[in-house]
Design brief:
CATH topology: PH-domain like
Strand content: 15-25%
Strand order of the largest sheet: 5-4-3-2-8-7-6
Distance between the termini: 39 Å
CATH architecture: Roll
CATH class: Mainly Beta
Largest sheet: 7 strands, antiparallel
Shape: globular
Helix content: 25-40%
Length: 195
């Protein structure tokens, strides 16, 4: 019979305690999202080219997260692929074709029907993208427009509850409805709380 190592601490787990209203709202939101064909395609993800200059065109995977409020994308950097997120609430407008200055200057290699621009609020630069097909570009334009309209229709309380639940869901990396100390640290980092 072996004795437990006194230096070993079992990893504590705590149950995710999400308000029932927020959980019900989130489930309803996700179910209604997956009924929309454009949003379903965004949830699967698309390989879109980010355009910054005549020669700088980088292909990245863009995918709508299950919370319906954020878009995940992966940069390909040698030896260090990184992942990033932008939020639907930070989008000011979604434009199709060569309507941005960047695409008018540098998007000539791509048909206007395949291009879209995501303009952000504040100082963040526009995101100029080219899709593999015109239909895929249209799906992203229509899908982001619908998501923005849905977000605008939510009350402040609904947005807050949805935001809290989406962060808890993202922080629960193994999706077991419990949070380890490591997952709690990750959650705090997501909401810019230094430890």
């Amino acid at each position: 019979m072996s004795l437990p190592d006194p230096g070993h601490r079992p990893q504590k787990r705590c149950h995710l305690d999400v308000p029932h209203f927020a959980h019900a709202l989130w489930c309803l939101h996700i179910n209604s999202l997956t009924e929309d064909e454009d949003v379903r395609a965004m949830l699967r993800g698309s390989r879109l080219r980010k355009i910054r200059s005549r020669t700088w065109h980088k292909e990245r995977l863009y995918r709508l997260q299950e919370d319906g409020l954020s878009v995940w994308f992966q940069r390909r950097i040698p030896r260090a692929p990184s992942q990033h997120i932008f939020f639907v609430q930070h989008i000011e407008a979604v434009r199709e074709g060569h309507q941005s200055e960047g695409l008018r200057r540098f998007g000539g290699a791509f048909a206007p029907a395949r291009c879209l621009t995501i303009a952000f609020k504040g100082r963040r630069k526009n995101l100029d993208l080219a899709a593999p097909t015109a239909e895929e570009a249209q799906r992203w334009v229509r899908g982001l427009t619908k998501l923005r309209a849905r977000l605008d229709a939510m009350s402040q309380r609904e947005r807050l509850d949805h935001w809290i639940h989406s962060y808890l869901h993202r922080a629960d990396s193994n999706q077991d409805s419990k949070m380890s100390f490591k997952e709690i640290k990750s959650l705090l980092r997501m909401v810019n709380v230094d430890m």
